[in-house]
Design a protein that fits this description.
The complex is a heterodimer. By secondary structure, chain A is mainly α. Chain A has 15 helices and no strands. Chain A has two domains: 1-33 and 323-373, no CATH class; 63-322, no CATH class. In chain A, helix 3 packs antiparallel against helix 11 (245-261) and helix 8 packs across helix 9 (223-233). The model of chain A is unreliable at 363-373 (pLDDT under 50). By secondary structure, chain B is of the alpha/beta class. Chain B folds into two domains: 38-143 and 275-297, Response regulator (Rossmann fold, 3-Layer(aba) Sandwich); 145-271 and 308-333, 3-Layer(aba) Sandwich (Rossmann fold). Helices cover 43% and strands 20% of the residues of chain B. Chain B contains ten helices and twelve strands. The longest helix of chain B is centred in the N-terminal third of the chain and has 23 residues, at 2-24. Classes of the chains: A mainly alpha, B alpha/beta. At the A-B interface, helix 1, helix 2, helix 3, helix 6 and helix 14 of A face helix 1, helix 3 and helix 4 of B.
Amino acid sequence: MSRFARLSQLLSPLVAVAASFLVGGLVVVAIGENPFHIYAILFRGAFGSVDAIGLVLFNAVPLIFTGLAVAFAFRAGLFNIGGEGQLYIGAFVCTLAGLAFGGLPALVLIPLLILASAAGGALWAAVPGFLKARFGVHEVINTIMMNFIAVGLTSYFVINMLREPGQMTPQTSEIAFAGHLPRLADSLSLIGIPLPQANPLNFSLVLALGAVLLAWYILYRTTLGYEIRAVGMNAKAAEYAGINVRRTLVMAMVLSGAFAGLVATNEIMGFRHRFLDNFSSGLGFMGIAVALLGKNTPLGVLLAALLFAVLNTGALEIDIFTDVPRELILVLQAVTIILVVVGNEVFARRVAAREGRAAGVPLPVTEASGETK
Amino acid sequence: MRKSLARPFIILVVTIVVAATFCGCSTDQPGSTDGTLKVGMVFDVGGKGDKSFNDSAYRGLLHAADQFGVEHTEFEPGQDADRETGLRKLAQARYDVVIGVGFLFSDAMRKVAADYPDVKFACIDFDPRPGETLPDNLAGLRFREEEGSFLVGVIAGFFSETGRIGFIGGMDIPLIHKFEAGYIAGAKYANPAVSVTVAYTGTTPQAFADPAKGKELALLQYRRGVDVIYHAAGSTGNGVIEAAREVDRQAIGVDSNQNYMAPGNVLTSMVKRVDNAVLMTVRSVVEGNFHGGLREFGLADDGVGYAVDEYNEDLLTDEMLAFVEDARQAIIEGTVSVPKE
């Protein structure tokens, strides 16, 4: 790929983010507020203190996991819209294990719960993966349906069978203390970073960063990753080359679901320590936007998740301290996504046009995707 | 080629410069210095504008602002973790009173109240753990909804011509079961032969914010011969009232006085005076006699009741009202006991 193409790959999300802030600014002006003031408050909410930055990271963790989940499946050509359901099942299995194995020491229980989270998500994603591989049923429909089943099932169990005794809040009892992931405040204060004790940032941040590395490693340094990418680019060609497409599709979904399930490390093990009915409010769906903005690469997902977390964290500040509704942030996020998608297409055309001219071939009608080679 | 790259670059640079300017000018810190009391309110699912539970709380806040000149802010959390974060931010911004509207705030309130002993917290419909005692700076405000529901049940039982009345609840939880239990007991008190059809919208907090489903459920009950439906379903109930208007039957409103929403088709409303509780909380802070702990509001202290105004006075006969008032007295004196589930 030429330098121009690489540069445009990098630039298009940046330009999209910048342009979306301009559009958002116009919206604020239309409401009759001063956009400079509103953005100042947004950034104060996200970067104004160590506490704020901790909140940004805390909010980024689940988006990193769900973003990786979507991106990973996407590399195999699968559109996993089921991150929401997968993270619910992951969180539910994690909570069950945390309630059942309370007697185990932390050194055993924590890894066990992490595995349980991943296994729950993987199991839930394996079903549409299998249906796709075996019967060719489209994964988009099945993952969406699996979302409904996951939310409904967990809701039923939590409300009717597992609810904390004497409580009307639809949540389970607290999982064993040994299964709590410690907060980062203590560790960071050792190296002189004054994160308040109350800040919810916890060790799942480390797991999320590990997951980014793991996703990169699997995709680019293992046979399975090669097969996944090959199937994603052209399943027929991959099959002709001797790759077991069905097995690859199922494996891609299983790993994708496992990433989504790991959201539980933050939400259950790190923060709430119990399963609250309907706790997610769309983290799985946000993952789709994160993956799109991050161009389905692990590093891109990390950066996109951070950006979304900055916006979400700042949104709360805007909501509390100004008259502008938090929906402004939804506008920013949506405009960014639209511009990235449009930007991909425009840049791809330019690249094709330039490279076509250079090689002396006529301009192609169909465009290459934004795939990094 | 240089030109095609230049444009995005310029846009980028301009944006960075502009963004840097924003950050530079962020010096205004929240926190008043002139000594006015600051009250923060965080809403439940459904939020401001539900014409019911949240709006009742908001009315209380506006009254307080009127009476005591307090400064106020309010917001609705976007995700669950925002509940705790939002309460914390208000406390950090040196708000004097922070009010959480709804039982979903119970956990977050416990934690934040412990971290900010100088800030007063109040939680509407607080969900206490068995045997729990609250710290001095946290008031859990609860209502005997079953008592108010009993009275509107009496009215429904008295009014119904078909002998079939309905109940539509929001989320299927013990809090809403209290409304149902009181209503049924009241209806049977007025008319032992009455039959009650019960439906719930759902099992998640979203069940309080689904007017379309509320309307659907109500139409279903009306078609089966039900002529009065009591809803305890937040903004979902707006659909119930809409259905009553459409087929010209009766609905009973909840939390706020909803009689005006369809004059002639809202028999009465079970008012839960969240507004009074909010006003009382703010007043106690102003007067310096706020204290923590659980507090229950019932018929005796006008914490709950039923609404009569120009929109429904033609529907209620004097005989009916006298009967209801007798029931009210009987409950306050304890000669009639109202079930909670």
